[in-house]
Amino acid sequence: MSDNEDGPRERLKAAIWYTVGEICNAEKDKLNVALTPQLIASLAQIVYTQAETLGKDLEMFARHAKRSTINADDVKVCYGAYGVWSLLQRDRSIFGSTPGSPKERESGKETFIGNGD
């Protein structure tokens, strides 16, 4: 990769590391635990890897739908594929409406994407 491609990636990693560190510092007092820099670095790497995987998956879903732009439907399908759709069902304001087809919405039947846990 060129320096032009590495720059934004390294800035993103640094921003994730900083944000994970801030969250850890805010939570450690509530939990009354000590956190090592190695733990924070590991968590930051996990978050970065998950974000990278999510981005690739979103691109794949959009490409499968023959689109070059990622939209909310791709996010819904992706989260369904990760098996977390049921968690998002609790707060439907994220998507603005009840999921499913109009007929399913009228009947009150819920639609689950993924394994439906």
From TrEMBL:
<dbReference type="GO" id="GO:0071821">
    <property type="term" value="C:FANCM-MHF complex"/>
</dbReference>
<dbReference type="GO" id="GO:0006281">
    <property type="term" value="P:DNA repair"/>
</dbReference>
<keyword id="KW-0227">DNA damage</keyword>
<protein>
    <recommendedName>
        <fullName>Centromere protein S</fullName>
    </recommendedName>
</protein>
<dbReference type="GO" id="GO:0046982">
    <property type="term" value="F:protein heterodimerization activity"/>
</dbReference>
<dbReference type="InterPro" id="IPR029003">
    <property type="entry name" value="CENP-S/Mhf1"/>
</dbReference>
<dbReference type="Pfam" id="PF15630">
    <property type="entry name" value="CENP-S"/>
</dbReference>
<dbReference type="InterPro" id="IPR009072">
    <property type="entry name" value="Histone-fold"/>
</dbReference>
<comment type="similarity">
    <text>Belongs to the TAF9 family. CENP-S/MHF1 subfamily.</text>
</comment>
<dbReference type="GO" id="GO:0031297">
    <property type="term" value="P:replication fork processing"/>
</dbReference>
<dbReference type="GO" id="GO:0003682">
    <property type="term" value="F:chromatin binding"/>
</dbReference>
<keyword id="KW-0234">DNA repair</keyword>
<keyword id="KW-0238">DNA-binding</keyword>
<dbReference type="GO" id="GO:0003677">
    <property type="term" value="F:DNA binding"/>
</dbReference>
<dbReference type="GO" id="GO:0000712">
    <property type="term" value="P:resolution of meiotic recombination intermediates"/>
</dbReference>
<feature type="region of interest" description="Disordered">
    <location>
        <begin position="94"/>
        <end position="117"/>
    </location>
</feature>
